[in-house]
Structure formats: C-alpha cells, structure tokens
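Handout, section 4.2: multi-component inputs.
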Amino acid sequence: MSGTDVFEPKIVAYVCNWCTYLGADLAGTSRLEYPSNVRILRLPCTGRIDFNLLIKAFEMKADAVLISGCHPGDCHYNAGNYHARRRWELFRDLLDLLGFDMRRIHFAWISAAEGRKFQQTISEITEKTRELGPYKVYEGKKVPYPSFPESALPLGDFSTQSELRAAARRLLTEGRVQVVIGYGERGPIFVTKPEDADKLVWNQSCLTNLAAYLKRKEVRALGKAAIVVKGCDERALLVLEQESQIERENLHVIGMACEGLGVAKCAGCAVRQPRFADEVIGQAKPAEAVDHYAALDVLMALQPEERMGFWAEQFDRCVRCYACRQVCPMCYCEQCIVDKNRPQAIETSPTRQGNFAWQIARAFHQAGRCVGCGECTRVCPAGIDLWALNLALERSAENHFGYKAGIESTAEPLIGSYSVKDQAEFIR
Amino acid sequence: MREIINQDELRKGVGEWLAAGKRVAGPKQAAWNRVLYADLETAGELLLDVNQHPVNSIKEFFFPKHQKLYGYEIRGNDVQLTEPAEPVLDQVIIGSRPCDAAALPILDHIFNWDYRDSQYNALRAATTIVTLACTSHDDDCFCTSVGLAPDAERGSDAVLVPFGDGGYEVRYVTDKGKALFAGRTKSSDQKATAHKGPRIKIDTAKVNAFVRDHFDDPFWKDHTLACFGCGMCASNCPTCHCFDIVDEGNVKGGYRARNWDSCQYANFTSHASGHNPRASQPDRQRQRVYHKFYIYPEKFGEVLCTGCGNCSRNCPAGLGILNVTTEISHA
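Output:
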C-alpha cells in the first residue's frame, strides 16, 4: 500500500481449477495488468465451492467476494457449474434477506481463454469496492421490530380423536405395526400396546412434526412404525422419501385432516387434507388462500443495513442450543456440519459472527427442502424469527424454479438436480 | 416497621442505576413471543406486572453463554497470554424470580469447589439481586417441592413482595440490597402476604432413591424417548452449569473462551475413538435427572434444582424435570 489514504479493498476470489484459474494464469502470461487486491483461491469446481466459504471470506474481513468458474456447457465434470448456478440463485436471495451488501458479492463465468475477461472483472470489482469502502459485514443499523401483517389463526374441531385411537388400536392388534408415533397429553408418544392406544390425543397441542423422529436410531429400533401426520407434516415425509431417507412401504401413515391448530402457519394452509397417507381420518374444508409472503415483503422493504441490524439483534440472542436443528425433520445428518471440528467450518461460539454462520448454514441446508412446518420457530427459546429465513428460500425456489418442497411426489429434489435452461442474470 | 416502595419509585431507581452506568437486567419482552431476562436499555422495558415466567434464567449474568477467559498471541515458538480486557461492570438484576436467585448459592458451590473461578466470583461480587416474589404459579412451577417458596430469600439481596396495588414491601436480605434502596423506600407498617405457591408435586427423596437403584432400567426409554436432544432444558436452567472450552482465533492468536454445553448433546460424551457411553437420548435424559437428584446431592447435600419449571415449560417434547420426576414419583 502506498502512503496515500486510498482504501485498498481486500477481494477474495474462489475460482475453479479448470477454467477461471487458467484464465487468471493466461492474464498473467499475457502480461495483462490487474489490481493486486485479489486473493485467488483455487478449488476443483464451482459445484464444490461451499457457500460457507463465502461467509468465511467476509468473516476474515474481505471487502468483496468473487466466485467464478466455467461457462455453462464447459464444466470439466460435466455439470458442476449447473449445480452451482442453482445454489447461487437461492443463496443470493437468502443473503439479500439477511441484509448483506449484494454489491460486494460477484459471480462470473470466465474460461481458460478469457484472460482479458479476468483482468476486466477484477479491475471492475476492485474499483467498485474501493468506492464502497471497507465492509463491516455484521454491523447493521438498529431498527424497531417491524410490524408484520397479522394472520388469522384457524382452529379445527378435533372431533376425530376416537377414530385415531381406533385406527392405532387396530394396527397394533393386527400386528401390522409395532409402534404408533403420535401425540399424547404432554407431547409426542410411542404407543406399542393396543391397550395404550387411548393415550393418543388429537387436539390443538398436536404441533410437533413427528417425522423428525423417523431419523432416530432408537425409534427405528422399535420396529415397523405408523406415524400420525397432518397435511403439513406429510410434506416432510415426501421430501424424506425423495431423499431416500425413509422406505415408504415400511411406514404406515395415518393422515389427520386438519383445519388448523390455532397458529399462524395454519392460515392459508393448502394441504389440510393429507394426500398420500395410507389412511386419512376426517375431511377438512380447504382454507382460504392468503399471501404468506407478505411478511417477507415487510422485511425486504427495509434498507439492507436495517435488515442486517434486525438479524444481528435476533441472532445475538441465539444460545446455540440447536433446538431448531433437533426438531427439524429435514436435519437428519448423522453429524451436523457445525459439530465437525477437523477442520471446523462454523464457529461454535455464540458470538454474532458464529451465530450468523450457523443460522446461514442451517437455513441454506433447507433450501428447496423446508416444508414450512414452523417447528424451528416454535421451539426457539430465544424467539428468533427463523420462519423468515425459510420463507425467503421457499419464495426463491418458487420464483426461480417453480418448485415447492413436499408437494409433488415425483419431483426431483431442487438442489440435487439442475436444468440447462436455468437462467441466472446475475452471473457476468 | 417495614420498608415499602411503589412502582414509580422502583422504575425511577432503575433509570438512575442505568444512568449511573450500571448494567441493569430484568424480565423484558425480548422477542415478540418471548419474555427473557435481558439487559434493560430503559426503565420502561422492565416487566413487573406479568405473571409470565421468563424463558431463560439469570445465570447468564454470572456465567455467560460465551465468556472470554484469556487471549493469546503466537510469535514464532512463543505464546503470550493476555488477560481478558472486558471490565466487570456493577450489575443490578431486578425482577428475578425467587427460583432463579436461589440457584446462585448452588452455582457458588460449583464454581468454588476445587478451583475458585475468578471471573464467576467477580461477577457475583459486582451484582445486586432484587427478587420479585411471585403472585401466581403455573402448571410447571414446583418450587415448594424443593424447599423453596414464592417469596424465598435465598440468593437474593432484597426481595420485593407485592401488595397488589402497585407497591411492594422491601425485605432486605443483605447489606448490598439495603444499600441499593437507600433513600428510596418509605417506612410503613403495611405487611405484604406472599402467594402460597404450588402444591408439593414431587418427592425428591423418592427420586433420589429411584435414580440410585434404576440406572439400567426400561423406565428411561419408556418415558424419555421423545427427547429431541435440543439441550434447551440446560440452557434455560438456572442451575445447569456445564461448559465447553474452545479456542477462537487463527495462526497469529485469538482467545480461549467457555461456552455453555449440555449433557443432552450426543457430542457431550463422544470419545475420540467414536465410542459414546451415552449412546441414546434416554441415556442423556437419565444423566440430567441423575446429576440433579443424585450426583450433586451426594457431593453438596442438596438437589441441583430450584423448581422453576423452565425445562418442562419450554420442552418441545413435553419432558423436563417435573414431568420425568412425576413419572418417577408414580413409578
């Protein structure tokens, strides 16, 4: 750095080994000059550039980040960049909701022959970042808690409790299942004897998404299970089956028609009547449609630094109890990324930086998978508005890819697949 | 003669303590759906009238969820240690529940038993705890089962017992409490009567005997299989005190910190070999009950529980100490 007061931004570029890295090499051998502000990190493929790395760069005081790889059709591994493109599209919408400065996050396709494009891209990003000044990533602007639209709290009548008990008793008596996973007076219960079927309840407190138990070894050890689901919980079963986590034929699904449990998520519910259950108890009237993205619009109407302030205050309360993860049917990894320490990807301390890293990882691992059961938000002891993170990704999946998790039984998982027709105008 | 204070005077006091640069914490609407003990920014934030038990406990102010122990710098082969730079502010906790304050003498044993924990003790010494006696209880409260009461004084510096008309009788427990209210109270012969509290719900001696004799017992699987392992019971518990030591930093240096940990996490007992002696969630639930009703009492002569009910009130699976030990009482 010279003796003048010119701000020299630090720019981190994650590039693929086969195209952009060679493009950078070509720029060098061609004697093309570009600013020395960029630190190039070479990875095998953009498909393998974990989104955590982008967050990590900002944690380590980067002022801007570039991710760049092969043009569509050019991937050394055939489709890595197509997968990456899908993820970036979703990830950008999450970062935008969180209030990241999107002017500092760049994506590009730069081939091995495009030394000049590499030079130009780096020069432009450096110039632009220098104008923006240093990035203090998690220093948002404090805002009063926004007033989110009030939703109706639909409440059904729960008259089908005796039918549920009869169904459980029958299944256990006939030996068709060894355990019925359902709701008891105080919380989830595992009924293994026909005479205990009367311990099952069907009422307003049946909120837990019981699909979360299907991943647990000690529950699997009980034998073939019947599970009580509402339409919303059933969506989770669809995703779990899509992702080969459950064998549907080994599971007996008791679907409860549900006209609401008196909580916000029930407003505008599109799946009151379970659709794929082995038996459905009751008949539910369809709900009136509501715009459940309206609450997101309230957040998006704030300035990015205000959104960052909103989340900073929320995440500062996080104690890292991981209740959000533990109750989530989609969080079935045997070892969560946050529990890995060789190497450690996410800071485990409940600092602002660590909490952002964790909440981003949790939310993004649900991209295109979250079924909106809302359990993470319900159980959070710190009252963090986790629903908004999930909802932003749900809207992103719907807007960009017309995809909604757990609705179509034959759909390919959004993140596990790609289309050459995916469009992404933000990529240079 | 007794000492009394009205709510306006009390709030005025909070404002003045804040203005004097003290850290003042109490129950407040910290999130739209959660009342938490948290730092007060204004006296108006303090919730005095609600009968809602805060989700968390006051241990955060003595044993923070994340606490820097010391810093380090690495220069070549040399490591330099630096003292934590965070100053200890005078703290006032206002509106603590009796069951939260009563946890502090219990934690004192832990943090002074073999090693005297200077940071914990410094925060204890810098804090004055003003407890608000309860005027009601909910289904999860069971302070009377562990020898406490809605106006228990244990762990407090002063206890405020409401008259029901916005005023409080101020009962001093320590000189620190007396000093805090000096000049703010009036003399009166009005006497406040405390709420009776919940009926006795569990028999701690029976729980102690049961856990001693039922280590390998189907009881644990039968009653605690629903546990999600979220550890929320521990983080919200006024007496749970397990922590993990971590280093946060890079090759040049960083700091060593302690973070809350919980026996409800699978990682808590994972061995480097991959073996885990507490292999399933019921094993971990058993550990929590064991520690509270057998291990700690063996060592310190009292149970590691103040009957606050936080673990049952907030458990996503309907468990928690009250519900599990109630099953034991009936077993």
